[in-house]
Amino acid sequence: MIDARDITKAFGATQVLRGVSLELAKGEVVAVIGPSGSGKSTFLRCLNHLETIDSGTIEVEGKTLVTTDASGKRSYAPEGEVRAICRKMGMVFQHFNLFPHLTVLENIIEAPMIVQKISRAEAIARTERLLAKVGLSAKRDNYPSRLSGGQKQRVAIARALAMEPDIMLFDEPTSALDPELTGEVLRTMRELADERMTMLVVTHEMGFAREVANTVVFMDQGELIESRPAQEFFADPRHERAKAFLHHML
Ligand code: ADP
Ligand code: MG
């Protein structure tokens, strides 16, 4: 579903990604873990073109988003194609990013109506289905300010799903939540995984990574250091930095 190869990215003089490669298969759940500042968010943001890469290749479902030729010249697909490719991916952020002036329903129906040009009635029907799925049917007409953090994040997940993505990208979806609210969000994500959604999840939740992810990748200082089946990784991390990180987290 995603094939990223040799991605490099710098912000000014800071080299943030130093040749990161990652493959994501259909139905696979990959957890990306690693210390703060290691480039996890930047990598995710490069995949759906919220950031441009400096070099490397990204293919999504066989379509080339960006590639780099032998001379080092990077080229992105034409704008329309880039947009179509990025629509295959839904993204959920740490800070929800809901529109505060719109109700839950309005937050969710907007993109399908504008981008997919479906009717309001169809968008509402889809939204009601998704709200039932994330357990928030009763909050349909509330504004985000009336919701808990966990509820906001579940709305954000429903909003991403409303665009019918093939892949979901999560960037530390529970990191901004009070500890007692992380469970409900992780449960929703686990249900998605059970339905065989293809997911790339940056997380500090080691329990989730161990139990739900098929593969764990460990990043440090802009490099992808280790990529292993989750059970194996947690039982026996190979790299010293991964060991130290796990020791610190568990
Ligand atoms: P992580 O998500 O693993 O914590 P990030 O991808 O957010 O790491 O950040 C990696 C590095 O890139 C950090 O040193 C961070 O300060 C830097 N960085 C991230 N975004 C920007 C930006 N927009 N401008 C400049 N530096 C950035
Ligand atoms: Mg981050």
TrEMBL record:
Coiled-coil stretches noted in the UniProt entry, renumbered to this chain: none
Gene Ontology CC annotations of this record: plasma membrane
GO molecular function: ABC-type amino acid transporter activity; ATP binding; ATP hydrolysis activity
UniProt KW keywords: Amino-acid transport, ATP-binding, Cell membrane, Membrane, Nucleotide-binding, Transport
Its membrane topology: Peripheral membrane protein
Annotated ABC transporter domain residues: 2-246
InterPro entries documented for this protein: AAA+_ATPase, ABC_ATPase_HisP-typ, ABC_transporter-like_ATP-bd, ABC_transporter-like_CS, MetN_ABC_transporter-like, P-loop_NTPase
Principal location class: membrane
Superkingdom as given in the UniProt entry: Bacteria
Places the protein is found: Cell membrane
Recorded family membership: Belongs to the ABC transporter superfamily.
Protein name: Amino acid ABC transporter ATP-binding protein
Native organism: Diaphorobacter aerolatus
